[in-house]
Design brief:
Elements lengths: L2 H33 L1 E5 L14 E5 L2 H4 L7 E4 L11 E7 L4 E5 L2 E4 L2 E2 L13 E5 L4 E5 L9 H4 L2 E2 L3 E10 L5 E2 L2
Antiparallel strand pairs: 1-2, 2-11, 3-4, 3-11, 4-9, 5-6, 5-8, 6-7, 9-10, 11-12
């Protein structure tokens, strides 16, 4: 093997290695985004004061494969089919399957018990329910109750529409941290 053949083989090997590395990186990034976690941004004020417009979040897409959502989780979901919208929504999970939910006198009641909601922008100024959350569905409300297009307008979120749980804010830098 001549010196120029050896150099040519090394160049082809380096090029092939670079292409393989790039391909593997793209495959891993796609796999992680599809099955594990993804970034989302907040396009509206429906979750104020908890989430501000243009906050950037990490969404955990794995937890709900092994456990059910909990009341109070901030969930990302595909809107119900009747809304004919493609963009995902983000709201707080309020009602679990079988819960009786009612909004009256500025409070949310679950199974007849008033809820303490320190995270809301203002007390709800509307009446809703009582409604019973169906099996395999959830009732979700925005933290900005009076300015949120949520379950009190369009109903329940089917369990299979839930994408994941918002777990971490990574932007803006002065608000970085976990979401409770």
């Amino acid at each position: 093997m001549t010196s120029s053949e050896s150099q040519s083989n090394r160049s082809k090997s380096a090029l092939r290695e670079g292409i393989e590395t790039l391909g593997l990186s793209i495959l891993l990034a796609f796999g992680i985004r599809t099955f594990v976690a993804e970034a989302r941004y907040i396009p509206s004020g429906s979750m104020l004061p908890t989430l501000e417009i243009n906050d950037r979040l990490i969404i955990d897409k794995v937890t709900y494969d092994f456990s059910n959502p909990h009341r109070g989780d901030i969930v990302v979901f595909h809107p119900p089919d009747a809304l004919h919208q493609k963009d995902a929504f983000i709201k707080r999970l309020i009602g679990l399957p079988g819960d009786v939910v009612e909004v009256k006198t500025g409070k949310v009641y679950i199974n007849g018990e008033p809820q303490q909601e320190s995270y809301i922008a203002a007390k709800p100024d509307y009446q809703y329910g009582p409604v019973t959350v169906p099996a395999d569905s959830y009732l979700v409300l925005g933290d900005n109750r009076n300015e949120s297009f949520d379950s009190h307008y369009w109903g329940f979120v089917p369990k299979d529409h839930v994408i994941g749980r918002a777990v971490f804010r990574f932007w803006p830098p002065n608000r970085v941290g976990e979401l409770n």
